[in-house]
Amino acid sequence: MSYTEIYAFDKAGNASLYGETRNAWRGAMAVWKTIEDKYLPPYRLHGTTISRTVVGGLGKDNPAMRIWELADSLKLPVDERIVLHTTFDRCLVKKEHLQHVIDAFYRFEGDTSLPQQALILEDIENDPDIIAVGWNQTSVMADTWSNAGGYDDEKDEPIPYNCLTGTDHYWLFEQLVCDKNVERWWEELADAPFDDPGPEADMVLAEDWGQFEKGTKREEIWRWFDEHHSRGVAFLMHGEAEKP
Length: 244
Known about the structure:
Elements: E1 3-10, E2 15-22, H1 28-39, E3 43-45, E4 48-50, H2 65-68, H3 78-86, E5 91-94, H4 98-107, H5 114-125, E6 130-136, E7 151-152, E8 157-158, E9 170-171, H6 172-176, H7 179-189, E10 194-195, E11 204-205, H8 218-228, H9 232-238
Parallel strand pairs: 5-9
Antiparallel strand pairs: 1-2, 1-6, 3-4, 5-6, 7-8, 10-11
Helix pairs in contact: 1-3, 3-4, 4-5, 8-9
């Protein structure tokens, strides 16, 4: 039986296995399949409809890339983007953001191990010695956070990864909102449906889009982009930052 493993990082930044949930297929694979069925058209290979999760391939030739790319798309609500990111190998979450992940896990629809993972995360949140969390989606993997720091020849044992000194990771909530993603979302905004109530009122969203609900004014959405891009909405509109 394979497991989805959850690693905790102590105050010194070092990783150790904290908990695990049975059947790794109910982890990342179940999440990917749920996202695929909800947002992507059926994938056909040699005349047969199959899931992109089982095809395989390298780089952009892997059909599953279409699923993974949705992690940075506002086509998905923020909860689903959080869940999808936690299935990626290099993703870590700071303890201060852990409650957002727990909530997203409980709200995710689909037959997954996320509710069981959330229980482990709740224990971690109450542990004063833990500062961050990471995942290993299947226990059959040889490389994990517990040995990704290299090897100590003197002690003849692997070195755990250190989230304070290591560079082979990214912080989930810093990735969710960064200039690169905000610029991608700005491009997607061009395809979002708006209703025009007339010349005396601002346009409003015709349906839910990302974290913005139906009826949100266009000006309010622009204000969000202005606040979350380092060079402001003027740069997104015109390719230049607003003059002081």
